Automatic annotation (TrEMBL):
Segments passing through the bilayer: 31-53, 65-89, 110-138, 177-201, 221-241
Organism taxonomic ancestry: Bacteria, Pseudomonadati, Pseudomonadota, Alphaproteobacteria, Sphingomonadales
Keywords annotated in UniProt: Membrane, Transmembrane, Transmembrane helix
Protein name: Glycerophosphoryl diester phosphodiesterase membrane domain-containing protein
Source superkingdom: Bacteria
């Protein structure tokens, strides 16, 4: 199950601690974090974007309904795999926080068990955020910060969807300005990193452009490879950061709970 790994000593919530822990868990367990992100996140995402563009490019008159059905089916599969990745990365992060190293199989098992409830949570969260951002933007930001750790709370504590929202609201209370600052910093770091990688490789192969390229019938292999790399890094980094934020907030509010976490996933 878990082998020896460094145990975190810092307590309380600080932006620097969350970021340093994020890089630490990615470096300590790349197989579980980047591996799950690549196999069940980046590759399906790239293939999904490419397939949608290809279907549009090769569509015949009267075939729109079939394209819609195939696209919706593909989207459901993609969403399920995305939730699996979130659960897997959360487990890898919590294992490292409690002084262990979760195996790839263990992370995959946790991700599978949490995938379905995470879909429900994500859909409800998306609806709430859309409604909030439509109401003069500010309510959307408040909800985003309030629900910042709902996903790792659901996975780690094995609670229901609505309980996860409540747990996140309780943990983020009193720290939402710092969470806002953390989000801004993470966004800037990822944005600069993705631009740097794209410039070094000489291609802007982001997944959002694959559908357009595929619809035009011109998708270089390098675009697929670069998009997969960038998506893998983004998915793993964001998942680990979100889980570490949850751990920092939980330790700040409730105190370190390494032993109880080990019992939950035993």
């Amino acid at each position: 199950m878990a082998t020896s790994a460094p145990r975190f000593e810092q307590r309380g919530f600080s932006i620097g601690t969350v970021i340093s822990r994020t890089f630490a868990v990615l470096a300590d367990n790349p197989l579980a974090t980047f591996g799950c992100a690549l196999l069940f996140g980046a590759i399906p995402q790239v293939l999904y974007s490419y397939s949608i563009g290809s279907q549009l490019a090769n569509a015949e008159p009267g075939s729109q309904l079939a394209i819609v059905v195939i696209s919706l089916g593909s989207m459901v599969v993609f969403l399920l795999l995305s939730m699996l990745v979130q659960g897997a990365v959360v487990r890898a992060t919590t294992a490292f926080a409690e002084g262990g190293r979760a195996s790839f199989a263990e992370c995959l098992s946790v991700g599978l068990s949490a995938a379905v409830p995470l879909i429900g949570l994500t859909l409800l969260m998306a609806l709430g955020l859309i409604a909030g951002f439509l109401l003069f933007f500010i309510p959307g930001v408040i909800l985003l910060l309030m629900w910042a750790v709902a996903v790792p709370a659901l996975v780690t504590e094995r609670i229901g969807v609505f309980a996860a929202f409540s747990r996140s609201r309780a943990l983020t209370k009193g720290a939402r300005w710092r969470i806002f600052g953390l989000y801004l910093l993470l966004f800037i770091v990822m944005w600069l990193f993705l631009i740097l990688i794209s410039l070094v490789l000489g291609i802007g192969g982001l997944t959002s452009g694959l559908a357009i390229q595929a619809s035009q019938g011109t998708v270089p292999v390098t675009s697929l490879i670069v998009s997969g790399i960038l998506n893998t890094i983004t998915i793993a980094f964001w998942g680990a950061a979100q889980a570490n934020l949850y751990i920092a907030l939980r330790d700040w509010k409730d105190g370190p709970q390494g032993e109880s976490l080990a019992e939950v996933f035993a």
